[in-house]
Amino acid sequence: MLYGMPTPTVRRLLVGHLLRHAREQTGLDLDAAGKLIGKTNSTMSRIERGHTALPQHMLKKLADAYEQHVPNVVDLDELLDLARGSQDRGRWSGYRSVYSKYFRMAVDLEADASAIFQYQTEIVPGLLQTEDYIRALFTTAQLQLSDQSTEDAIEARLERQAVLTKPNASQVSFVLSESSLRRHVGDRELMEAQLRHVAEIARLRNVQIQVLPFAAATAPRATHDFKLFRVPSPGNAGPLEFVYVEDFTDGRYLDGHEDVHAYTLLWQQLVAAALDPVESEKFILRVADEFAR
Question: Which residue of 49, 51, 144, 278 has the fewest CB atoms within a 10 Å radius of its CB?
Fold first, then answer.
């Protein structure tokens, strides 16, 4: 595999992605594809969306059927390799159990993505937070976690930050609203340290940070946070792409072509409206200096 061994969740998503690509290449709809292996339209939809996994023998039967329509439409060895272990359990035990169930897929996508694009409005993104900032978030937000749960949450969030510095690290781009830099979390000393940390991370070769200032008159009307994930896929199916949008009690994953295209355009508009990376670093350090006074 070109991209190592993805998490079980992402392996299942990639299997579905490859199957959908193969089906579309054959010109079959979900009904026709389901009849090839005795499955319903709704079951085929769940399989292609990564919600349901097929056993190996059924997966091979479906791939062979697609091959009858379009030779070499799918690499069976790669498909079966991805499918192995896609049902593994236990990843969300211990300190990782603090993650909300709706957020766990985002954590897996984050771990396996080759590129991540994040727009953040009110607080510093989790991947850029210092330990003190994380601790203050849980204290000031009055989440009523036990002391152990707070420590687990801190450990889990700090673990995620390895995506920025691991070997062959992802390309990660942020557009941060000015409000995320000025919103007080903890005291002024904590905020100064947090912003200097953001400026330091911005110097990593695989990280790009831009600030969308209040004065950006051309800023598009992006009123909520979102993430775009791009995960490499074998063969000619193209990358797996997801948009993650979160509200107070839930998170949504969008992978439709129109949704991904719309958010990609929005991202490009935000990048164009924001300060460039060099000016953004200077801006972040100026705000840090303000907290130091």
Answer: 144
